[in-house]
Amino acid sequence: MHASLKTVFHNFSALSAIQVANYVFPLVTVPYLGRVLGAEKFGLIAFAQSFVLFFAIVTRYGFNLSATRRISIDREDPIKLGRTYCEVIAVKLWLTLLLFAGFAALIYLVPRFRNEPALYLLSYGFVLGDALFPIWFFQGMERMKPMALFNLVSQAVFTAGVFILVRERGDYLWVAVLHSTGFIVSGVVAQIYLLRTFSFPKHWPGPRALVAQLKDGWHFFVSSVALNLFTGANTFLLGLLTNDLVVGYFSGAEKIIRAVLGLLSPLVQAVYPRISKLASEAYAEGHRLFLFFRRVMIGFTGLLSLGTALTAHWAVALLLGPGFEESIIVLQVLSPLPVLVGIATAYTNLFLVGFGYSRIWSRIIVFTSLVSMAGVFLFVKVLEMDAVGVAVNMLLTECLVIGLSYRQYRIIHKRRSV
Predict the structure, then answer these.
(1) 3 state SS of 144
(2) Where are the domains of the chain?
């Protein structure tokens, strides 16, 4: 256990550096962009980013879970390691290319997108950069320090560019250019480092191998799509049902709460491959590690929720500036989200997925995502609660995930402990 915790700690430290970058750089750029662009253009940028995120979700195809687990198990076998890497990266690149055709068609056919074609097309570069960034490989190998550096490069490119190129409201297109460029540069550099550092056979896989990878990751893909439907889809659906100004208020508060939630991500990413490996070898040992980190996550995220509730006024005033007063109540409503996500993540990602029950996890996430989308329509169109309604819906969705996943945990643990 001592060795396992030491490895987890090292990777947690590296992943924390990634999240610190994800946290610190937006602390600099978000206040600037909020003041320069205003709530409406800020909301337009957020809507465009939420739109391209759907395409990135498809190219990820759940590999951040399925491929990470496979890499962590086969890390000592160069043949299997090379096969997994080549097949996963090939699937990602093919999906990125094929999806662009559908993306371009939507831009020119749907009026909501046709008004700003340049913004959406420039934003698609994020999808390519995200597909190239091999965090799934390094996470499975439990070597996350290089990822921290490459992520820093991406954040630095974006931040420097914002202050140099975005000077007035009409410069909003530069935000899309810089966002895409940062991810593409980071992805290319990470790929070069990976190929020079790790020795394994490299080949371009045939159609059968690609189909096999798609089948292997199918349940993770369905779950990832569903998971993002009630996280990333909130901004997008709100934009379809209301306007850019309301989206600006919501996205401002959501960016703050997502920055807070980002502090949980290093812990989950560091623990997940270790729990996956232990669970594949001995259930009891893996379960002990799960129980330990469940307590850690609940305590940590509880403090994050309390801190968010107490500092909501200050955070909005400092980070978003004048014109975002409506975001304060949204952030206050969202303040319990960190602890709810912490509990839900412990039972879904660490237990159900880590212990090999991805199909159960998939069914839970699909069901709750459908409920969440119906909830957005109910709160926004029927109850006319707009941004606050979406925030309430997010909390209720996480509560539903907790209830369903905890029930499955009790059933599985009782059966495995006999």
Answers:
(1) coil
(2) 2-416
Mapping DSSP onto H, E and C, the string for 147-204 reads HHHHHHHHHHHHHHHHHHHCCCHHHHHHHHHHHHHHHHHHHHHHHHHHHHHCCCCCCC
Rg (CA), the chain: 21
Question: At a CB cut-off of 8 Å and minimum separation 6, what does 382 contact?
Answer: none
Residue 359: other Cβ atoms inside 10 A: 14
Q: Which of 12, 128, 135, 127 is nearest to 85 (CA)?
A: 135
Q: CA-to-CA distance for 207 and 226, rounded, in angstroms?
A: 27
Distance CA 13, CA 1 (A): 18
Q: If you average pLDDT over residues 384-407, what whole number do you get?
A: 94
* Residue 96 to residue 132: CA distance in whole angstroms: 10
Mean residue pLDDT across the chain = 85
Q: DSSP secondary-structure letter at 381?
A: I
CB 318 within 8 A of CB 375: no
**Mind listing the pLDDT tens digit for each residue in 323-349?**
888 999 999 999 999 999 999 999 988
Residues 6+ apart with CB under 8 A from 417: none
| pTM, entire model | 0.70
pLDDT of 403 above 90 = yes
List all residues 6 or more positions away from 257 whose beta carbon is below 8 Å from its beta carbon: 308, 331, 334, 335, 337, 338
Taking alpha carbons only, the member of 165, 55, 170 closest to residue 119 is 170
